[in-house]
Write a structure and sequence with these properties.
The complex is a heterodimer of chains A (about 260) and B (about 290). Chain A is mainly alpha-helical and about 260 residues long. In chain A, about 65% of the residues lie in helices and about 5% in strands. Classes of the chains: A mainly alpha (about 260), B alpha/beta (about 290).
């Protein structure tokens, strides 16, 4: 349980780590759009090299590069298989009864897989280098113009922050309760799925009880400090955009324009 | 009966969050002892006790129960956990059943006992904690007071009939009456039920009075061990690692420092009171 790196954030000190979170989110948006503008394999190669360069500049351990792909492995795998088998057109490479692997399928499968892999890695690059708190901060700023449309940016960010703040607490708590019940002979590891689900009751009931208790305490603590949220609330850590943030954004935009106009 | 050999534990090895919580710990606890484990927050006390019943696996080193390694694979972990019971801090947070009976029966039920034996065990556990079986068994554990909840959680451990009980800060957050009652019950478990007790605590007054041996931890190392009289005889060292002396020891040492020829190895109010009275009445300084 302790091996889970939460929110994937890895503290560090690099160009990417120190980028303004608002700009980082914008860059992510631009790069995702760019990925969907790519039309050829050359484009992906270009983009891939770009991402690898940034990855090495951010001084992240390489194994996180692959580890990040693990949760989406099945989606990628199925995309590949489904395209291979069901997209028709062009030469036939292989016949398996009623199923055929055709040229267009291989092309589309590989193409989509590459797009997915790069999408995940790009996102990973941002989440690995942004602390959850500054992430929420960035989202609050970005949602600010939408307040007129009734989107409560501050409240959303506050909810995110609180949720993120309590993930480690609840993890720790569940770890403790799990151990406490294991000390009483509880078993969370063996048996079929129904048995296991039932065995979770001694873990879930105390966990919910304590989550509600904590929520209550937090609400009272915030109330006691006259929390009102939203309008006119100042920040302890003001975000400042510096030249390097504009540099980051220009690089991302440059990437998009290059892909768009070169037609790769 | 419990032995820890060169035990080290590292949390989250290989990540930037890696922490070495215990470094090369070796210690031995004999049957029937009352052992106190003291140390600052984060000194590794809780990590250590979780190794004693196999909840944590040592990064290196070993834990032996009656001379057999609990990680040798031949031993049933459930059996070990029923022999060496561990009660975490704020154990009332682990209650989950609808009735006190069911909650106390959870541990013994996991041992595969039949309903008749279960009932006996639950009765035993509750009675040891001075909770009346008939009036408590059908109540919801969530409707009880803080002190009662804690005793129910403790009954749940005792119902497994362990040989060793490990208590992590058993009196934290209790009011003085609740604290006194719980300590008296623990003392009784040790003296009458002959349980080996391992108590992790920050309360030097309690532990110096109850324990026959102390282990002092600091920054993941075992820095001092021995009888309370020996451990608290090095006040300098105790303060250096951020701990306090028991109030009574502090008093006796102050008296001694001011030139009074007085014993400093006493830990109960009665003994200390007697010693001081004797000193001032008898004018023992003449004897020297």
């Amino acid at each position: 349980m302790q091996s889970i790196t939460l929110g994937h954030y890895l503290p560090g000190d690099s160009f990417l780590h120190n980028l303004d979170p608002r700009i980082k989110l914008l860059c992510l948006l631009v790069l995702i759009v760019t990925l969907f503008l790519v039309r050829t394999f050359w484009g992906f190669m270009f983009f891939g090299v770009f991402i690898i360069l940034i990855f090495s500049a951010s001084k992240l351990p390489w194994r996180y590069f692959l580890r990040g792909l693990r949760p989406v492995f099945f989606i990628i795998f199925f995309t590949l298989i489904l395209h291979f088998l069901f997209t028709d057109g062009g030469r036939v490479y292989l016949r398996l009864g009623p199923l055929t692997v055709e040229e267009a399928g291989v092309f589309m499968g590989t193409f989509m897989t590459l797009r997915l892999v790069l999408l995940v890695i790009t996102t990973l690059l941002i989440t690995l280098t942004t602390s959850p708190i500054s992430f929420a901060d960035g989202i609050e700023y970005i949602l600010r113009p939408f307040r007129r449309l009734g989107i409560p940016g501050h409240e959303i960010a506050m909810m995110m922050t609180i949720a993120l703040r309590f993930i480690p607490t609840l993890m720790e708590e569940s770890d403790k309760i799990r151990k406490a019940q294991m000390a009483r002979g509880a078993d969370f590891e063996t048996g079929n799925i129904f048995r296991r689900a039932r065995n979770l009751v001694p873990l879930l009931v105390p966990l919910f009880v304590s989550a509600f208790r904590r929520a209550d305490e937090l609400a009272i603590a915030m109330e006691a400090r006259c929390y009102r949220g939203g309008e006119n609330r100042t920040k302890m850590r003001e975000l400042h955009t510096r030249p390097r943030d504009y540099l980051g954004l220009s690089v991302s935009l440059g990437m998009m324009l290059a892909i768009l106009f070169s037609g790769v | 009966m419990l032995e820890v050999k060169n035990l080290s534990h590292v949390y989250m090895p290989g990540t930037p969050f890696q922490v070495e919580a215990l470094k090369e710990i070796s210690l031995k606890i004999e049957k029937g002892e009352f052992v106190g484990i003291i140390g600052e927050t984060g000194s590794g006390k809780s990590t250590l006790v979780q190794h004693l019943n196999g909840l944590l696996r040592p990064t290196s080193g070993d834990v032996l129960l009656d001379g057999c390694s609990i990680w040798s694979g031949k031993v049933n972990m459930r059996a070990i956990r029923s022999r060496v019971a561990l009660l975490f801090q704020y154990p009332e947070h682990q209650l989950f059943e609808e009735t006190v009976y069911k909650d106390v029966a959870f541990g013994p039920r996991n041992l595969g006992l039949d309903e008749k034996e279960l009932q006996k065990r639950v009765r035993y556990g509750l009675e040891q904690m001075e909770l009346d079986y008939e009036s408590y068994k059908d109540r919801s554990p969530f409707s009880l007071s803080g002190g009662e909840k804690r005793r129910v959680a403790m009954a749940g451990i005792l119902a497994m009939k362990p040989e060793v009980i490990i208590l992590d800060e058993p009196t934290a957050g209790l009011d003085p009456a609740g604290r006194r009652q719980l300590l008296a019950l623990i003392e009784k478990l040790h003296s009458e039920e002959k349980l080996t007790v391992i108590m992790v605590t920050h309360n030097m007054d309690e532990v110096s009075r109850l324990a026959n041996r102390l282990f002092v931890f600091s920054a993941g190392r075992l820095v001092l061990q021995g009888e309370p009289a020996v451990v608290f005889n090095s006040p300098q060292k105790i303060k250096e690692i951020g701990l306090e002396l028991p109030v009574l020891s502090e008093l006796l040492l102050k008296l001694k420092d001011s030139g009074k020829n007085i014993r400093t190895d006493l830990f109960t109010v009665e003994e200390v009171g007697k010693e001081i009275l004797e000193y001032f009445r008898g004018g023992r300084s003449c004897k020297v």
